[in-house]
Every structure is written in C-alpha cells, then in structure tokens.
Amino acid sequence: MNKKKVDLVLSNCSKLLTCRDGSGDIVGVIENGWVAIDDEEIAFIGQKEEVLEKIEYDESNVIDCSGKVVLPGFVDAHTHLVFGGSRSKEYAAGMTKGGKEKFIKAGNKTGINATIDMTRDVDEEILYHAALTRLHQMMNTGTTTVESKSGYGLTVDSEIKLLEINKKLNRDLPVDIVSTFLGAHGWPDNMEKDEYIEVLINEMIPAVAKRNLAEFCDIWCDDGHYTAEESRLVLKCAEKLGMRPKIHTDAYSYIGGSDLGIDMNMVSVDHLNYTPKSVMKKLAESKIPGVLLPATDFAVKHPVPFDAEAMVEAGMTLALGTNCCPGAWNTSMQLVIMLTCREHGVDVETAIKAATLGGAKALNLDSDRGSIEEGKLADIQIWNTGDYEDVIYKLGINQVEKVIKRGRIIVNNA
Ligand SMILES: [Zn+2]
Fold it and tell me: Model confidence over 182-194: pLDDT tens digits?
C-alpha cells in the first residue's frame, strides 16, 4: 500500500475527543489516539498502528501529545462581537440591590440603546480593533470558528459598516467569522417599530443581500421586542434573499418564537429560557439546534435559567455560544462549558460536544468542522492536561496549549 506524505502528526494523544456522532460515547474518545493532517485537512485518525501504516512522516512536523487532551476547535455559535465602548459602570451598578435603578435615575442610558450610542457613529477602524482584541482572546482559549452578528447600528449605513468589519476580520485572522444580520435587535429611539420593520424589509435586508454580507438573518422575538408574526415577516423576506433564519427567543417570555423556529425550519433557535417541554420535543424531532448562552444567564442573574437538563432529556441537539456582548462580556468557550455544567446540570461530555459539533450544526457547518474526522478541516486544540474534566474543575484557568486552524498552528502557549 502506498503511504501518504502528511504535513503534521499529533502523536500519542492521551485522550483524543473526536466529538463525532455515532461513536458509542458522547465525545467519541480514542485513548492514545493519533491524528495525521495533510495541508488543511485531517487525513487519518486512529490508534498508532492504524495511522502509521497509512502515512509517511519522516518530514512531517510531529507534536507529541502524551499527557494531553486533543479535541476539535470550539465553534462559538452566537456572538455580538463587533461593538463600541463598554457598559462596565452599568454592570457594576447592578451588583447591589437598587444599584441599577440609581444608575438609571442619574440619567444614564443602559442596555442595547447605550451600546448603539457608543457604536453607530464610531469610526470603523476603532470598532475593528476592539473586535480584533476580543477575537484574539477567543483564539487563545480554543475557538476556531465564530458567529458574529450586527445589531448595534440600526441604520442601513451603520449595519453595513458592522458587517463589513466581520468581513475584514474574517480576511485578516486565521479563524473563520460567520456573519449574521441582526438589524432587528431592536428599533431606533426615533422610530416606531412598524416604521422600522418597513425599513428592514425595503432597505436594509436588500442592501445586505446585495452586498452578500451575511449568511444568516436573526431577530429578537420576545415580549416587548418583536412578535412572532413580525419575526416571520422579517425573516421570510431575508430568506427569499438567501439568508437563512435564526432567532433570539423565549429569553424572557414565551410568545411563539421557538414554534416559529420549527415552522420555518431555522438553522438554530437561541436562548430558550421559557421554552415549554412540548416545544423542546418538537425541536428535537426537527433536529433544530438550541443555542444556549450560559454566560448571559450568569451575567444578568436570570430569574429563569434555561433548562438544559430537560433539553437533553428531550433529545435536542445543543450548541453553545459566548454571546460575547456588552451585557455579558466574555470570550471563553471554556467558561461557557463550566457554567453549562455547574449552573444548568449538564455533564461535561455533553457540554464539550455542544461547544464543538453542536456549534457547527447551529451554523450549518458540520459537514466540514466540529469534530475530528477524516476529511474534515484540521481545526484542533491541544490542552495542557490529560483530564478533560479539568475544563470545568480548574476554575478560570485556560487549558489551551496549542490551537491548530486549517492545519496551521495559530496559538502556541507551550
Ligand atoms: Zn444574542
């Protein structure tokens, strides 16, 4: 048999978490596994003998992974990466009883509207560099694919500016950025909601589609935000122009957003604090991933934390996201895994799978990433531990030693 020359070999991985489906255990562990990488792709995986009989590696770069956990790069399935300013004072005020009320009474704007003021008219260069810093932090903690939404501009020009920044970040950094148009994050102060929906449908969505700036279109469907009918209207329009729908929903109420997700066969439904168990069952049957955002539940001290245990029981596909935004400023999927387990009663294997293959499914990218399988992209991280449970056990410690993106080492903390 002809042996294949490969570029990179990961040898003696104490625990190789393939995270592939159908492997018996949740994360598809191979003990003492080997991975052979050819250019951008994973060529072979398996036990030493299985891999060695297929490869020639005299000239390959070999990384000895004994005593290490090796797993797919994280796919962060939900972020608001590009924004200006900071709401640290608002957040700090919210730590004490009545603190936030006092902060508002003193005349300070809060929430999305405060961030819009710090983003809409800010120079593109400044916004780019702020997002770049966050993206570097994401890479350093093991993330190799990031979804990034617009939604802090709410005018045609400013929303396009945010999506253009996504495009530049995708071009300039080795990680992949998947762009989502979220013009319906809210509506501007100076406009009625109905009036803004007209702008979304007649101006913004066509402008984004024409420039091919977004893969997906998202909306916030909740009491006090957009109704399910309004969401359908906006998302149908985007779908016609080639953007698949996603939805922020059931975060603070249940008004039919997750049902709409099923009805429109969305690529994902996100948040899900108030989702009834009957809808979880339907989401499971429809194979629509639920994207969970535990850092947000933690940061806002959510009165109704999402019920991940019930979602697992219903058989749903779960994905995780940092929801990196000014309201829940975090960039680490390791923190997200830790919170998912400790605060929402999920086992560590299920959380790791949700942070890798689950995220890829929520971005419709699981055909080429999210698991360590032959033929998929070599998006891989190496942890400086032999016990993957350390990710939830050793609090606030970055486990990442190396990150490989499309076969190239992009982070080396060794
Ligand atoms: Zn969000």
Answer: 999 999 999 999 9
